[in-house]
Amino acid sequence: MVGRPAVTLVYAHRGASAAEPENTVAAFRAAARLGADGVELDVRRTADGAAAVVHDATLGDGRPVADVTLDEVPAEVPRLEEALDACAGLVVNVEVKNAPWDADFDPDEALAELVVRTLAGRDGRDRVIVSSFGQGAVARVRELAPDLPTALLTAVLTDDQVDGLVEEVAAAGHVALHPHHLTVTPHLLERCHGAGLAVNTWTVDEPERISSLCALGVDGVVTNVPDVALRALGR
Could you tell me the CATH number of the domain that includes residue 133? Predict the structure, then answer.
């Protein structure tokens, strides 16, 4: 993951989430079957200190993920280890869900530590990049595992905001910026690539937009429809 790929990579958003329920083993296996280069998945910490692969802070029945044990989450919610096994051979973008605005925000960054421990215990067999909207989360990952590739997620930015942010992200030792696709401009790409940062953008499903982002020079696209994206890229 370090450095820029030779082609625009396709990351299946929460797995192939248009084909299977998001963030499930079935969605991750479908992503591989459809030819995705990688998978993006979300991790939250349960009450007993486990890493559950789930996007929202609350389960479908309204229970906060942070208040239930791993045994109490629905059967379709995998542990991080199960998800990584299902993604074998793919690049896995592990998004740590611990930003200051999250309902279950933990300023001690225990989830980041848990993700690092989980990856370390797997003997380096995973190809991963750890990302988060929370600067503290990815900073903690870098503190614990400096060789682990990390990226900062961002929402819509203006060109005026880009310059300082790119300098900050590069100085922090991250390998990539993950901006919303509406943020991607020639200016952002020039600044990121000039600073040695890859640009993996989210979440885009329209073939024309995927093609245009590739033409601009993005390094990766995150999409719910990896098969559509691959066709749009002529792969």
Answer: 3.20.20.190
Q: Which residues of the chain have pLDDT under 50?
A: 1
Q: What is the pTM of this model?
A: 0.96
pLDDT tens figures, 112-171: 999 999 999 998 999 999 999 999 999 999 999 999 999 999 998 988 899 999 999 999
Which residues fall within 8 angstroms of residue 29, CB to CB, at 6 or more apart? 15, 86
Q: Is residue 210 part of a domain?
A: yes
| Residue 227 Ramachandran class (φ > 0 left, ψ -120 to 50 alpha, else beta) | alpha
Distance CA 108, CA 166 (A): 25
Give per-residue burial for 135-169: e unless 16+ CB within 10 Å, then b.
Answer: bbbbbbbbeebeebbbbbbbeebeeeebeebbeeb
Taken as a whole, the chain contains a residue count of: 235
Domain count, the chain: 1
CA 178 to chain centre: 8
**Residue 158 is part of which domain span?**
9-232
